[in-house]
């Protein structure tokens, strides 16, 4: 691998990011074709289910310039028929001499199969680029294809003393404009945005990215007993059909009928401790083909997700403020003893204006049982 190879691979990752939030239930993928003289011939990314995969689109755009050249792709090319033909056959027909990929297919049924097909046909195959970035790109797809549940990112915007609102419930704005722009980018990368009923009632959010840039994530509200007011924008903004209200059998039938009449999808989930079973909800969202769920609140929901083991990543936006006292804590629920407290592993820290974005993953956490 050369410095030029690394640069081309970095480009495939950037292209793949353009497809995040659009490709479900497929992973986001980017591809670049470089001709035999080392010049860029074409590039593409997967734009949505049923549309050409990134490799096929890039090769089609490159035409004869692909012959004898190199295909850089963020994910191992597919080798099986699905909604589209196998990319391996398209690669061989194009006469590509070399393929550089970022990560193997996380689907156990396909892992390495495309690479073996290409090697048997005489194509040079290498792994390249930033392995961590390549793996992160397909993390949600890998979680879904192996467990049947979506990847969940828990987003929290809090003060340094861990408060997400003051004693009056006000939370706008704890963090600054740079952090808020990053939240919108997170929303665009997700297939669904999840909140608890308390957050839905208090903030009356639309839960859509701004600007949307073509993304339409599902809105999911956990409302175990069916107490959402019908005037919420989630239920009457013309997009109620993209809203899922997760309830238990304790929700009155009349409330369920009213929600359904307004266009919302009402899921009666199993109950656990009188609340919606989060493992059951995870399984149902996975069946819908959702790869990545972003949870935006509130404090009780965050604690419940951690207890259920359904947190794959934490995005903590830390503002240089202190509220103290009766402010709303980021985890508004009975705590853990120190020895049993959830442990996180910091993976990256970014400065966003005056704020910090701390990326973390749970350390040694069991998977959410669906």
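^ Assign residues to that structure.
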């Amino acid at each position: 691998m050369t410095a030029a190879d690394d640069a081309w691979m970095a480009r495939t990752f950037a292209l793949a990011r353009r497809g995040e939030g659009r490709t479900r239930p497929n992973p986001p993928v980017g591809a670049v074709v470089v001709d035999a003289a080392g010049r860029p011939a074409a590039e593409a990314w997967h734009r949505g289910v049923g549309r050409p995969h990134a490799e096929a689109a890039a090769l089609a755009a490159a035409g004869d310039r692909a012959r004898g050249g190199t295909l850089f792709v963020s994910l191992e090319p597919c080798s099986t028929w699905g909604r589209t033909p196998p990319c391996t056959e398209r690669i061989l027909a194009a006469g590509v001499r070399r393929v550089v990929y970022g990560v193997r297919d996380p689907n156990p049924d396909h892992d390495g199969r495309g690479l073996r097909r290409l090697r048997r046909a005489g194509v040079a195959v290498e792994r390249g680029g930033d392995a961590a970035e390549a793996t992160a790109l397909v993390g949600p797809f890998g979680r879904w294809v192996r467990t049947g549940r979506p990847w969940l990112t828990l987003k929290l915007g809090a003060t340094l003393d861990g408060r997400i609102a003051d004693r009056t419930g006000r939370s706008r704005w704890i963090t600054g404009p740079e952090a808020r722009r990053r939240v919108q980018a997170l929303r665009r990368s997700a297939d669904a945005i999840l909140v608890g009923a308390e957050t839905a009632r208090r903030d009356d959010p639309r839960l859509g990215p701004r600007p949307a840039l073509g993304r339409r994530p599902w809105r999911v509200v956990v409302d175990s007993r069916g107490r959402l007011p019908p005037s919420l924008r989630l239920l009457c903004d013309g997009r109620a059909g993209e809203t899922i209200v997760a309830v238990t059998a304790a929700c009155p039938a009349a409330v369920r009928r009213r929600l359904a009449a307004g266009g919302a999808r009402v899921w009666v989930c199993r109950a656990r401790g009188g609340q919606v079973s989060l493992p059951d909800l995870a399984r149902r969202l996975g069946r819908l083909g959702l790869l990545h769920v972003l949870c935006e609140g509130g404090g009780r929901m965050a604690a419940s997700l951690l207890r259920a083991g359904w947190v794959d990543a934490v995005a903590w936006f830390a503002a240089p403020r202190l509220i103290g006292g009766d402010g709303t804590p980021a985890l508004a629920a009975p705590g853990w003893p120190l020895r049993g407290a959830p442990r996180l592993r910091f993976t990256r820290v970014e400065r966003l204006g005056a704020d910090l974005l701390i990326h973390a993953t749970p350390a040694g956490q069991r998977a959410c049982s669906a």
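The chain has two domains: 3-137, 148-362.
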